[in-house]
Amino acid sequence: SAVISQKPSRDICQRGTSLTIQCQVDSQVTMMFWYRQQPGQSLTLIATANQGSEATYESGFVIDKFPISRPNLTFSTLTVSNMSPEDSSIYLCSVDGQGGNEKLFFGSGTQLSVL
Amino acid sequence: AQSVAQPEDQVNVAEGNPLTVKCTYSVSGNPYLFWYVQYPNRGLQFLLKYITGDNLVKGSYGFEAEFNKSQTSFHLKKPSALVSDSALYFCAVRDWGGSQGNLIFGKGTKLSVKP
């Protein structure tokens, strides 16, 4: 199994500012996924982050708004830039299970509120 | 495109009664199906998966799910509900053809178990 530490766990931010969310995994993983969960909604994939390459963004998400770093196989960051109240969501990182588990492990999430 | 549907926004059950949370899927190829649970202010926790093999899959906390290919369903069940089972439940399918194996989630079903 993979243990994921995600921080901050929650934050309240002002409109127009940026927040960087960190995701640390206790083992090396190839793929990391970043999801957004808007209030009362399901999870939507923002992007897939592979080490050593540019993140792949899903439709509706762009790098300028959600820049992602993946400097090594155990760490990734997601930045929410130029925030607006519509960005208020839970952001979760996720990694692939090891040894062919076929399941994804999730961090505890970052609850973001934008005023 | 792969998708899952959870037709119920909320399921209400009395403690001690059996519970069912419904999920139907639409996939091309063999489905990799999952159930996750989300407690308030927590990340997603894996409950169980179906990849291949027996149609009845047993998972964590006494939950089980039955894969039904003819009905394209993967309903989550538990013989005797507990108040502590109250949470948000997500059905998901692994999308191997899209973003390198991310999970596509249903909208979620809120389970409420009353004493």
In N-to-C order, the SSE pattern of chain B is: EEEEEEEEEEEE
Based on CA inertia axes, which overall geometry of chain A fits?
globular
Order of helices and strands of chain A: EEEEEEEEEEE
Low-confidence stretches of chain A are: none
Distance between the termini of chain A: 37 Å
Report Rg of chain B: 14 Å
Largest sheet of chain B: 6 strands, mixed
Provide the helix percentage of chain A. Answer: under 10%
Query: Average pLDDT across residues of chain A?
Result: 92
Largest interface: A-B, 24 and 23 residues
Radius of gyration of chain A: 13 Å
Residue share in β-strands of chain B: over 45%
Uncertain ranges of chain B:
none
Task: Write down the overall mean pLDDT of chain B.
Answer: 92
Short description:
By secondary structure, chain A is mostly beta strands. Chain A has strands at residues 4-7, 10-13, 19-25, 31-37, 43-50, 56-57, 68-72, 75-80, 89-96, 104-106, 110-114.
Write up what this structure looks like.
The complex is a heterodimer of chains A (115) and B (115). Chain A has 115 residues and is an all-beta fold. Chain A is built from no helices and 11 strands. Chain A has strands at residues 4-7, 10-13, 19-25, 31-37, 43-50, 56-57, 68-72, 75-80, 89-96, 104-106, 110-114. In chain B, strands 2, 5, 6, 10, 11 and 12 form a 6-stranded mixed β-sheet that branches. In chain B, strands 3-9-8-7 form a 4-stranded antiparallel β-sheet, with no helix packed on it. A two-stranded antiparallel sheet of chain B has the order 1-4. Chain B has strands at 3-5, 10-14, 19-21, 24-26, 33-38, 44-50, 56-58, 64-68, 73-78, 87-95, 102-105, 109-114. Chain B is built from no helices and 12 strands. By secondary structure, chain B is an all-beta fold. Chain B starts with a strand and ends with a strand. Chain B is globular and about 45 Å long. At the A-B interface, strand 5, strand 9 and strand 10 of A face strand 6 and strand 11 of B.
Secondary-structure blueprint of this entry?
The complex is a heterodimer of chains A (115) and B (115).
Chain A: E1 4-7, E2 10-13, E3 19-25, E4 31-37, E5 43-50, E6 56-57, E7 68-72, E8 75-80, E9 89-96, E10 104-106, E11 110-114
Chain B: E1 3-5, E2 10-14, E3 19-21, E4 24-26, E5 33-38, E6 44-50, E7 56-58, E8 64-68, E9 73-78, E10 87-95, E11 102-105, E12 109-114
Parallel strand pairs in B: 2-12
Antiparallel strand pairs in B: 1-4, 3-9, 5-6, 5-10, 7-8, 8-9, 10-11, 10-12
